[in-house]
Write a structure and sequence with these properties.
alpha/beta, globular, 232 residues, 5 strands, 9 helices
Length: 232
């Protein structure tokens, strides 16, 4: 029997998709969350809130190796042989962290013939062609329903399930992603000092830094200066 599996990230789209699917009695055999270990603390708390609301457990899929293990792994060939891997590069498509910490573990955890439900909203149809795997096994309910980003947020708000991170961030993701917006980095600096300190340590250790032409200490000085001016 073919399994129906929801690919759940605890973001606005996948959560709205899951809640609505259950509300209209669509088949949901499993709910899977790929835990890369790099989510904001609020994400893990929100998963508990969603579990309590739907009275079902979310299956947490963890990778075989951690971010630290992969980040500090030494390159074995090419011009960078002997150096540690460091951060994913901002200027190239794809991301080894997403691939090795989330995508592949999720693929290995699912039956190959399972139907996979993905939370891609109706304004992101272009993402459908970038999804890996067996396209005939992928389903996009939000696109079928014509739900955009705002519809997902409004729907969750009506259920008392507004995701807390969207009160701070326009976009969410790994707290140490080099591709994140500067506005997200500023929130990381101001609201998550322990994570900011970790990020600075990774930047110091990575052979190619964090972001091209951007140093975290420079950003820290700039934002500290702005805060002092605002306080004054």
């Amino acid at each position: 029997m073919v399994e129906h599996i929801v690919n759940f990230s605890a973001g606005k789209e996948s959560t709205a998709m899951l809640i609505r699917m259950l509300e209209v009695d669509m088949s949901v055999d499993k709910i899977m969350f790929g835990d890369n270990g790099l989510e904001y603390p609020e994400v893990y708390e929100y998963i508990k809130v969603v579990e309590a609301y739907i009275n079902r457990k979310v299956i947490v899929i963890k990778p075989r190796r951690t971010w630290d293990e992969l980040f500090y792994k030494k390159v074995t060939k090419g011009k960078r042989e002997g150096a540690i891997r460091g951060f994913p590069f901002c200027c190239v498509p794809g991301c080894w962290a997403s691939r090795d910490l989330k995508i592949r573990p999720m693929e290995h955890a699912r039956p190959k013939d399972a139907l996979i439900y993905l939370g891609i909203n109706c304004n992101e149809k272009y993402r459908m062609q970038h999804e890996k795997g067996h396209s005939e096994n992928l389903r996009y309910p939000l696109i079928d329903w014509g739900w955009d980003e705002q519809k997902c947020l409004d729907y969750l708000d009506s259920k008392g399930l507004f995701p807390p991170l969207y009160k701070k961030f326009e976009r969410t993701g790994c707290w140490l992603c080099p591709k994140q917006r500067m506005s997200s980095l500023k929130i990381l600096f101001s609201d998550y000092p322990e994570l900011w300190r970790k990020l600075k340590k990774y930047e110091a250790d990575s052979p190619h830094g964090f972001k091209p032409n951007v140093k975290l200490m420079d950003l820290e000085r700039k934002w500290d200066s702005q805060k002092k001016s605002d306080d004054f």
